[in-house]
User: Fold this.
Amino acid sequence: MTILRFIKNNLIFYARKNLLLALGIAISGAVLTGALVVGDSVKYSLNQIVEHRLGGISHVLKAGDRYFTRELSDRVRDQLQIPVSSMLLQEGSVTADGGQRRLNHIQVLGVDPNFDVLAGVENYYSRLSGDTVIISRNLANRLSVGAGEDVLLRIEKASLIPLNAPFVSDAENVVTLRATVRAVAEDQDLGRFNLKVSQTAPFNVFISLSRLEELMDFSGRINVMLLGGDQNNSGQMWEAVKEHFTAADASLKLTLLEERQELQVTSDRVFIDDVLSAPLLEAADRSEALLTYFVNQVSYGSASTPYSFVSTVPDQWLEANEIYINQWMAEDLSARVGDTVWLNYFVVGPLRELNDTTVPFVVKSIVTMEGRFGDAELMPDLPGLSDAGNCRDWDTGVPISLESIRDKDEDYWDEYGGVPKAFIALSRAEDLWKNRFGTYTAFRYPVFLEDQAAEEEVLETQTLADLEESLAGSIDPAMLGFALEATRAKGNEAAGSGVDFSELFGGLSFFLLVAAVLLSVLLFLLNLESRSEQLKTLVVMGIPLRTIRRIMLVESMAVALVGSLAGLLLAIIYNKLVFIALNGVWRDVVRTEMMHLDIKLSTLAAGLLLTLFIAFLAIWFPLNRKLKRQFSAHKKLGTEKMSPKASVWRKLTLVVFLVTGLASTALVVTQVIRMEVVNVPVFFAAGGLLLISAISFFHWYLSRSASGKEQTFDLQLLSRKNAKRNLVRSMSIVILFAIGAFLVISTGSNRKDLYANAEERSSGTGGFLYYAESTAPVLKQLNNPEVRFEYSLGEAYSFVQLRKADGDDASCLNLNKIINPQVLGVDPAQLDGRYSFLTRTPYLDEAHPWMSLQEELPGGLIPAIADETVIKWSLGLAVGDTLHYVNSNGESMDLLLIGGLAPSVFQGNVIISNDHFLEQFAESSGTHVFLVEGALSDTAVIRSELERGMRDLGWDMELTAARLAEFNSVTNAYLSIFMALGALGLLVGTFGLVVVLSRSILERKQEIALLKAVGYARKEIRKLVVREYMILLLAGIGTGFVTAIVATLPSLLNTHTGTSFISILIWLLVLVVNGWFWIELVTRSALKNDSIYSALRND
Assistant:
């Protein structure tokens, strides 16, 4: 008989036992391959989401809070010959069914006909016109609306002027539109369009670009340019943008002042950006900067002139304390040269906080109202002021006392308009009125006319063209905050670098894998033991041990191959169940319904090879050990006498027991001494070390029992002796149940209930009651009684208002890798004494950590704080690392993470001080994020008042405890997965217990028959066997329980935990009852067989 035929016969003869071994290997393969397939599938799904949210878009030109011309898109398209679409992207809210159903924080997207090309559709978005809209499928489902139905939109009104700039009206920063739904956009229609890196679909409303511009009260302006084409073509695209970028794209207006023979450059933003001042000064040989400001009054003695514009003259004309006043003002005040007049004006601070300031000036001269002193063009173009028909129609964004406006003031306005009534030196005006939005309101350039008879139209065209060409070459879009983003490449990179679900599920399935491998080892050992006579016969026949080893290895690996192939099938089934759960009960982990299974042959092959490798190890070492130890000396399998090597192992396990036990004790004692700084990982490490120590102790104890000699005999002693009968089997059961109980109990203990103690200032809520966001910015201080009255708000609560610079969501709700999270600006004093810090750098003050945000750090670094979970997991960084941003001026902005917060409502954001925020994002207007502090008993009243008073701003609020719970639901979902997989591992362990117990009873037929023969009843014999395995079961579960308590002690003592000692005891009881049930069932079934009791007679 050939070796191959011998192997074939063995496989057939031992088919039942081989099938059990194949099952164990199949479970291992399913877990390993399943984890790899889950990882592939999640990455595939995230990449598919990138496709669905971007369509044919490869790059996006963003302008921050600025707006540029549609013509820039046209010029770039013409040069590059690629699909380019203009978009106006605003935030808003939508209601349906008469306001009964409402959604805040929607995207309102003004799209042009070219959007169809990028969306991959024909005559879809291009057919939008008038008050018709297309809505995304998720929005339609949420509001239960469809085509032909009406919705009411409230849209943040785009403003070319920063809303917090001086003298800008905030009367209408939200516009309303009743629109009819034309269609519902599915995923394939680019209904999920989103420029942010997220797997969660936004709520989208698409409207024609021209109609949205009409609602915004401007035309030809956009804030987003969408580009198709090669995603690796960023350099060429950016060069095209720079080449075709004009003064108009920088919000500059060029006007020829024919009478004065000057060119004037002003800004749609009123104040010209400081970064443009140098290019404007260098644009021509001679230039003059101008600053015109609106003052409350100019007074002399008891006389005063209300509400006047004051402009500037070159410094060489006036000293810093001198002023020109025009004839009209001189007569109104009865002021003369040499008199001192007082200018009273508002300095507009953040959130429109007004600083009422008065400064004195000496009248140097009284000027006639002609030439530059009678020039109405010096007045900036301020909507609500410069276009007002009379003084009483002024809407300046600051308080106007209509009672102080006289008839003569109205007459002046009617006759002279905004002609300044006074002039001061430019440098003095800079000191008084420079602000974060800019310093100057205009630049002027003289025009020298060689031919006075030249046609003015030609002259204007040539002159404007020359100046525009000069400016275009000197203005870099980047310095205004324009950025070309490789959106598709960024999305794909984020999808590929995000949460690694292969590692995640591999880690979560760790115990299940260990259980399956141990089961495979046990089954293989049992197979070896059942074939001991066959193997000894082969040895006696003179077959070399090497040949026997090769036969057994080939035979076993053939079984392993079958098991591994079966494991691939099980892996596919396992993954389908996992993805059903991820799209269902475990949806908190992924936050999308777009998770799809993706099976790659390469992954299956890798899983197959990995499973075979593990199977080889699980077979090789036990096989080699058994053959060497038992058959070389012709000893009977199962009667192991303590060998010198076994004695060494026993001593080694004693050393491991002592070392790990002492290390665990030291860690716990250290933490108890320093209870003010509880380090959760240290306790978990202590529990893990204690688990190793306890397992080592049982190994040492069972080894010691094996070598001991007892003088008495009873059934209890026999149970203990039998427990050490086969050390490998016994330890396998102890290890399986110890690790299983440790993981299941420690996982369950870490579930948190963050609703508990939410009112504490040190908790993740900071003691605040509500967390709110608004679609449109709130431009004023809500703690001001006058502002509260304006919004009909009560006095029983207070606000902390935070500024926002858009970024990607870096919370645990986002599976993608995030580089630039959203930045929040806050007044650190308002958070002093709130929240808790887990990690810190020396830059973080011990007593007042939040105040450290105000500090100036070396190298221009800006101190920042974020949740420790965001820093570690979402960003892949640590406290002390730096985040790199680009500010609104296109300059590098580096944030140094000086502290890591315990889980808080700020998760997903990075926090800096207001002062640093406004330095970096000068154009930012108002606040979008709010923390509301109030009494818990007033919860309903506060919500009602705020939702009613702030409704038009797209106000969205939630309890801070609920927000924390939402973040925590992700953690709890992961723990649920861990527990579910751990429970599967315990089932595998239980199956192993059943197999070992059944095989053990069959092997001990003679022993059981002997006990029956000497007078023991079946009931006593059953108790003997049950007690023997209950010792092992209780040893394993008890070890896991005690060590898990140590590992999770901080969580159990924490009032925020969602698990009680009662629930842990219930888990413990379930584990014990489960094990006892199967031990009792298998023992009863086996001992009912009379053939067992006749084994002695047969021998």
Q: What stands out?
A: The first strand starts at residue 59 and ends at 62. The CA atoms of residues 377 and 419 lie 8 Å apart. Residues 59-244 form one domain.
